[in-house]
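How a chain folds remains the central question behind the approach discussed here. The record that follows shows the chain in one-letter code together with its fold in token form:
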Amino acid sequence: MMSDRFNAEYRAKLTTPDEAVKVVKSGDWIDYTSCLGKPELLDKALAKRKDELYDVKIRGNLIAGPIEAAECDESQEHFIYHSWHCSSYERKLCDKGLCYYIPMVFHNNAAYYEYFLKVNVVMVSVSPMDKHGYFNFSVNTGVAAPITRMADTVIVEVNENLPKVHGGYDECIHISDVDYIVEGSHEPFANNKAIVPTETDRKIAQNILPYIVDGATLQLGIGSMPNALGELIAESDLKDLGMHTELCSDAYLSLYKSGKLTNKRKSIDRGKGVFGCAIGSAELYEWVDDNHGIAAYPLEYVNRPSIIAQIDNMVSINSCVSVDLYGQVAAESSGSRQISGTGGQLDFLVGASASRGGKAFICMSSVYKDKNGVFHSRIRPQFDGDIITSPRSQVYFLATEYGAVNLEGRSTWERAERLISIAHPDFRETLIQEAEKRKIWRRSNKY
């Protein structure tokens, strides 16, 4: 039961969305935080003020649509939207010229706000206040607290559907640190079912599985390949696996349901599955709700390489768009088209590589098909203008359906040989010719 003091303070700060957004002025920087933290009611109210406001800049991250303030102003005279990491919806906004990507690595996200960025108003969805006066940031814990700390004005939107998530720290905000509270009815979150793995996904997963040992802690990206690996692990003899991940997805729920995910052997946060943000099915949100075996932390902790390095047998698994024969990885864009973001790939590459027994994998299918039905190799001779996500000096394992190769400490000709060995057979001879042109192929090379 809410104390009388907090109850009175709650009533004093409670207002309508339309009244709350009146605090926004032309030229302000607004933050919507991340994922399910999107303030749906406040966003709609802000969009209604379009004709009154100019040059209002908004930041978000992995937000599902619609974002009314971004879509209502194609001129961008009034609202300009930015994303730290594009969801599929934000990618479409980028394609329309209605979203600008902010280059970053996630473990520095808090520092960006603390030292460099201005936040005039933060608008964030939270779970209902508890009897002690705290609102829970829920599956948005990874980024929310550092932003709210730096904001001039804090507006929380109470979303009755958000799960309450236990945390390591910074999973909540107290009513004393809130300026305005808004309430209203919200639609249930989309029940995002796990993406069904393809046969190629399963082959890639099979190439990674032998490298995972009992007691390993896993960081899995989102998508069909991690889901395929989750399925294989669930059927394997592996036991006592752990979770330490930027993004918690249904792949972990599958591991938990199979009895493989216990977190018992973790070097730090023993007994706790650690994550920053969560996106997935309704069942996933139900699993993380009030679960003492789960701990949400800010990404400054989850993604910091020095923290990751303390976890023995840390296995990081991420994906990419393409790689060149030098071992450079493009994971966030196709040419100049922004697809997602750097996210935590580089964080976990560095951290897992430094872990005792740790390994870091970047995965991709060997080929892709363009809109005309023509197949192209994802292993390319050399990037020319592509945005590099992970430099060749940091790349560890690369995996396709044809195998997994370790590039650590390898010379240019060794890298070319190993990468061509996991390319699609139809493209290997051409890649050899390209490697020869660049003088990174020995006549004695094999593939």
User: Anything to note?
Assistant: The longest strand covers residues 242-248.
